Amino acid sequence: MKYLVVLAFAAIVASLASALFFMMRNGRDDKSTGNRMAKALAVRVGLSIALFLCILIAWKLGYIQPTGLPAAAR
Q1: 47: left (phi > 0), else alpha (psi -120 to 50), else beta?
Q2: Is residue 20 part of a domain?
Q3: Higher confidence at residue 6 or residue 67?
Q4: Residue 52: what pLDDT?
Q5: Model pLDDT, residue 31
Q6: Which range of residues forms the domain containing residue 39?
Q7: pLDDT digits (tens, 9 = 90+) for 6-30
Q8: Residue 12 domain-assigned (yes or no)
C-alpha cells in the first residue's frame, strides 16, 4: 500500500510539473499550450481523487489502520 501511495504522489507531482512546463513554454498566447496545460491539471485532479478513494477503500478493507493522536485528558 505504501508503494501505491508513493507512486500516486509521484504521478501527481509529475502531472503538476508538466502543466507548469506547458504554461511556461509559450505563455498565454498559444491556444494549444493552454489546452495541454488544462488536460495536465485535469489529470492531476483525477489522480488526486483516485488516490483519496484508494486510501478510503484500503482503510475500509483493513489494509491500513489509523493511528491518530491520543485524546488529551480533560
Answers
A1: alpha
A2: yes
A3: 6
A4: 93
A5: 67
A6: 2-61
A7: 998 999 999 999 888 887 876 556 6
A8: yes
What is the identity of the amino acid at 46?
A: G
Please indicate, yes or no, if residue 10 is contained in any of the structural domains: yes
Say how many domains are in the chain.
1
In a domain, 72, yes or no: no
Banded pLDDT at 72 (limits 50, 70, 90): low
Q: If you write DSSP's letter for every residue of the chain in order, what string do you get?
A: -HHHHHHHHHHHHHHHHHHHHHHHHHTTS-HHHHHHHHHHHHHHHHHHHHHHHHHHHHHHHTSS----PPPPP-
Q: Which amino acid is at 42?
A: A
